């Protein structure tokens, strides 16, 4: 596939380099047109969060520069861009993890269902906007207790094990892990495979019944087969929660994202439907990045 009008571009300068004019890559990425995980149309999207003019700095270093975008349930939003462009900082700002870094400061506003997240109690916010990290990090306890932990934390009185059973089962089912672990929920979580551990972490995140699920490179430590299982799961989950994923893997973003946000040097360069960002990007910088010109 060819991009509509490939203009000549000034190549983005690398550190300490002058910009140079080069011919624009004329071809769309080879994976455009390849099969996707998405089956059928996306469910009706509902706005969950609004990022408004968000800037985040570490000391004097600006990491995110006046970014605005909606985050919707019913869609997978992929944050893409070269290393250091601010993807993780943006992701971590959505549940106020950024503020745990002492040097970090923030301007702008992020709303969750209309409420400024700055006014919410951080732990409660992090249950509603929950994060799964790059490395699976189950607690050193049984499969059951990993999921039950969150439910126990939320309960006003300590619930009995049998009272938690159906909620634990439901979270494991939503994470596509139930069938594999139902036979022995007392199995130590750390003895599961890497892919199973990551699905357990997703189950643990879902147990709190969040509105937004943040995924920071969730497949980068996994083999291709586990990656496939998790990608299929992510696509299913977008019906129940808003999903935001940071990924370096453009093919993965193409396979699973409904919307894509391309960031460069802290700026949001382009935000749009995945078909547009990969197949007909509006910005030269996006065109160059998605076709492998840099990064
Ligand atoms: N804790 C921190 N203290 C100081 N600077 C930081 C900190 N975390 C990130 N940065 C800087 O902020 C900028 C954005 O980093 P961030 O990790 O958000 O980018 P990224 O796009 O997620 O990168 P990567 O893809 O490599 O994970 C980078 O210049 C980075 O060096």
Automatic annotation (TrEMBL):
**One Gene Ontology term of the molecular function aspect:** ATP hydrolysis activity
Superkingdom:
Bacteria
Lineage per the UniProt record:
Bacteria, Bacillati, Actinomycetota, Thermoleophilia, Solirubrobacterales
Q: What PROSITE patterns does the annotation carry?
A: ABC_TRANSPORTER_1 (PS00211), ABC_TRANSPORTER_2 (PS50893)
- Give Gene Ontology CC terms: membrane
Q: Keywords for this entry?
A: ATP-binding, Nucleotide-binding, Translocase, Transport
Q: Identify this protein by name.
A: ABC transporter related protein
Instruction: Provide an example Pfam family for this protein.
Output: ABC_tran
Which residues are in the ABC transporter domain? 49-290
A GO BP entry: phosphate ion transmembrane transport
* Record-linked InterPro entries: AAA+_ATPase (IPR003593), ABC_transporter-like_ATP-bd (IPR003439), ABC_transporter-like_CS (IPR017871), P-loop_NTPase (IPR027417), PstB-like (IPR005670)
- TM region positions: none
């Amino acid at each position: 596939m060819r991009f509509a009008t490939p203009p000549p571009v000034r190549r983005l300068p690398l550190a300490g380099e002058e910009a140079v004019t080069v011919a624009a890559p004329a071809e769309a990425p080879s994976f455009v047109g390849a099969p996707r995980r998405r089956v059928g149309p996306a469910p009706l999207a509902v706005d969950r969060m609004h990022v408004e003019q968000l800037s985040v700095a570490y000391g004097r270093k600006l990491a995110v520069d006046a970014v605005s975008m909606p985050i919707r349930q019913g869609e997978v939003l992929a944050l893409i861009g070269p290393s250091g462009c601010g993807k993780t900082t943006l992701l971590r700002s959505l549940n106020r993890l950024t503020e745990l870094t002492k040097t970090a400061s923030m301007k702008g506003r992020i709303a969750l269902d209309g409420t400024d997240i700055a006014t919410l109690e951080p732990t409660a916010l992090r249950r509603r906007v929950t994060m799964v990290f790059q490395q699976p990090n189950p607690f050193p306890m049984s499969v059951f207790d990993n999921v039950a932990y969150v439910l126990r934390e939320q309960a006003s009185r300590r619930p009995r094990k049998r009272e938690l059973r159906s909620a634990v089962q439901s979270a494991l089912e939503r994470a596509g892990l139930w069938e594999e672990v139902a036979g022995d929920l007392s199995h130590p979580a750390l003895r599961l495979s890497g892919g199973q551990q990551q699905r357990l972490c997703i189950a643990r995140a879902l147990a709190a019944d969040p509105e937004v699920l943040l995924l920071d490179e969730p497949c980068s430590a996994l083999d291709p087969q586990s990656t496939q299982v998790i990608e299929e799961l992510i696509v299913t989950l977008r019906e129940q929660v808003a999903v935001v994923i940071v990924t370096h893997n453009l093919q993965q973003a193409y396979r699973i994202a409904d919307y894509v946000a391309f960031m460069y040097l802290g700026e949001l360069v382009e935000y749009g439907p995945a078909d547009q960002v990969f197949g007909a990007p509006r910005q030269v910088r996006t065109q160059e990045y998605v076709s492998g010109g840099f990064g």
